[in-house]
Every structure is written in C-alpha cells, then in structure tokens.
Design goal:
- The chain is built from six helices and six strands, in the order βαβαβαβααβαβ.
- With 187 residues, the chain is an alpha/beta fold.
- It has a domain at 21-149: P-loop containing nucleotide triphosphate hydrolases (Rossmann fold), CATH 3.40.50.
- The termini are far apart.
Amino acid sequence: MEEPKRVKPYVKPEGERWGLLLVYTGDGKGKSTAAFGLALRAHGRGLNVRIFQFLKHQGARFGEHRALARLGIPIEGLGDGFTWKSRDLKASKALAQEGWERAKKAILSGEWDLVVLDEATYPLRYGWVSLEEFVDVLKHRPSHVHVVVTGRLAPGALLDVADTVTEMRKVKHAFDQGVPAQRGIEH
C-alpha cells in the first residue's frame, strides 16, 4: 500500500503583518478567558501587554488579576462591578468614559503591543462611550498595536473593522441549572 501524501492544512499567507483587531463576542462563556490566554501568549513572546476591564472595579482580585499581577501584566478595572447591578448609572457612565480615555491613551501611545479591552462592548451598547470615536481610534492606532475587544452584542461597526471575529455560543451552562459561579473557573 502506498504511503499517503502529506498535505499542509493551509497555505501560509505571504502578506504584510500589522497589528490585528480581534473581537470575541457572543452569549457563550470564554470571551475574557480567550483574551487573557492571548495576553499570556503575547507576554510569553516578549510583547508589551496591557489589559483594561470595563466592568470590573479597580480593586478586583479575581483569579486572573492575581495571576497577571505575578507575571507583571498590568490589568486595570475601570468600572464599578457588574453595571446591571449599579445603583448609580451616572457614576458608572463617568467611570466608563474616564476608563476609555485611559485605554485610548494607551492604544494611541504605541507603548503597548497588545491592549485588551475586556467587556468594552457594554459601555458602547449603553451609549456611554461613543462608538464612532471608539472605532476611529482603533482604525488609527499605531500599525504595530494589536487590540482585543470582548463582550456580548458587539456592534456591527466594530465587527466591520475587525480583522478577526470569534463568536462564543452558549450550548449549555451550569449557571442555568442553578450552579453558582465557581472560584477559579468563572472568577
């Protein structure tokens, strides 16, 4: 019997390299986890990485915060917790706007090779951060800067300018069966 020919599963593109815009969206679990995994990969390759979380508060100490701090990867909470539980939506909006200004400055500085905007779709959806400005900043960032945006219901204008879009789809989740969030798995 003849040995089968080995075929590459793809043809390696020969195009130009540039900073990518990746969007992880959908109603399934894993958007932030995927972004943090990418941040670890980039850090491991010597890229300068910074993470902004638009819903988590500044003092949050979930598992990812502890691990990233040990590795020296800056992660900054920009919100006041889960926005849908906010008692003061004006304050939540102000935090999102202030956070966007910090994130925008980091993106445009060119100092960071990868900037993660975790849960950024929420302030965009609520109208707290201008979608037009957000997209414009991403389109005009320094050419080497990679950006990852996570969150449910990513707006079409964001999807249109993204280089890679991944939609996480929920098939089944323990929470729907009455199982609370598990330490080390969900937080």
